[in-house]
Amino acid sequence: MSGIENELGPLGAVLHQAEGLRLVIKDREHRYLHVNEGWMESVGRSEPAEVLGKTVFDLFPLWRARRYYEEEVTVMEEERTIDTFEELNLVEGGRKQMWRSLKAPRRDSSGQVTGMIIVGMLIDPDLLRQRLTDRRPSLVEWMERHACDTLTMEEMAAELKMSRRKLERYFRDNTGMSPGQYRLRCRLMRAKELLRHSEKSLITIANDCGFHDQSHFTKVFKEQVGEPPGQWRGAKKSGPETAFGKS
User: Fold this and answer.
1) pTM (predicted TM-score)
2) Rounded Cα gap, residues 34 and 117, in angstroms
3) Which of 49, 77, 89, 160 has a CA between 20 and 30 Å from the CA of residue 67?
4) pLDDT below 50 — which residues of the chain?
C-alpha cells in the first residue's frame, strides 16, 4: 500500500470513485502523486499512470500550464489556500462541466509543507447554464485583462470554451470589432499608460504589451496613433487618451 493510500485510509476508495468530486495530491516538485476518477474524466485521461509523476507542463498547453503553476506556487511557496477557484471543462461528447475547487497546502506531522491538495466539486448543471449565460458580458473584460498575453486566437477561444467563429461573432456584435482588433486596442491603451507613466524602454514596453518586437510595436503604434511611440512619449501628452488617433 502506498503512502498516499495509507494517508487516505478506508476513505480513499470512496473518494477515488466519488461522482462529482475531483481529488488531486501533488508533491513539492509539483508532480502528481494521486488523482481520482473524477479528475481524470474532467481532463480527458483514462488511467492514473498517464499523469502520476508528471507536472502540468507535461499535460497541458503551455499557456494553461503556466496559470496552474502560478497557483501551485501561491499554495506551496506562500502557504496560502485558494478556495474560490472555478474552472470550465469540456468532457467526452462535448459536454461542459463547471468545477469549484479548493487548493490547499499539504503538511506533514511537523507542519512542514510537503505539497498540495486539490478538492473540486461539480457545479449543478442548471446552475452551470445560468453561469454560462451570465458570463457572456464578461468576455470583453476577460479580453481587456489578457490582451497583452501572447495567445493565438485559437488558444483564446479554447480558454473561453468557445469556437473561434463564435468568439469572432460575439466581439463584432458587442464591440463592433473583431477579437484581434479589440485586443490591439487594449494593447495600445496599455502601451500609452506605460509610455506616460514609466521609464521603461520601448523594447520592454513592446514585450509587456504583447508585440513581437520593438520594430513591430513602433510600426503598429505609428499606424494607429499617428506618430512613433518615442515621439509620442516625448510630447508628454496629457488628458484622457484612446487607442486610436491623437488626442
Assistant:
1) 0.48
2) 9
3) 49
4) 1, 128, 238-247
pLDDT tens per residue across span 49-89 = 899 999 999 988 887 788 889 889 999 998 999 876 666 66
Alpha helical stretches, state H, the chain: 3-8, 11-17, 37-42, 56-59, 62-76, 125-135, 138-146, 153-159, 164-175, 179-197, 202-208, 214-225, 229-234
Q: Which three cell numbers stand for residue 140?
A: 470583453
C-alpha cell belonging to residue 70: 502560478
Among 88, 87, 118, 122, which residue's Cα sits nearest to residue 102? 118
Q: Is residue 136 classed as helix, strand or coil in its secondary structure?
A: coil
Q: At which residue does the C-alpha cell 509610455 appear?
A: 195
- 92 φψ region: left (φ > 0), alpha (ψ -120 to 50), beta (else): beta
Taking CA atoms, 171 is separated from 129, 140, 168, 220, in Å, by 21, 8, 5, 21
In angstroms, the CA 97 to CA 124 distance is: 9
The Cα–Cα gap between 212 and 192 comes to: 17
Q: Report DSSP state, residue 141.
A: H
Other Cβ atoms closer than 10 A to 189: 16
Which cell numbers in the block locate residue 129? 447554464
Q: Report whether 187 contacts 148 (CB < 8 A).
A: yes
- For the chain, the distance separating the N- and C-terminal CA atoms, rounded to the nearest angstrom, is 70
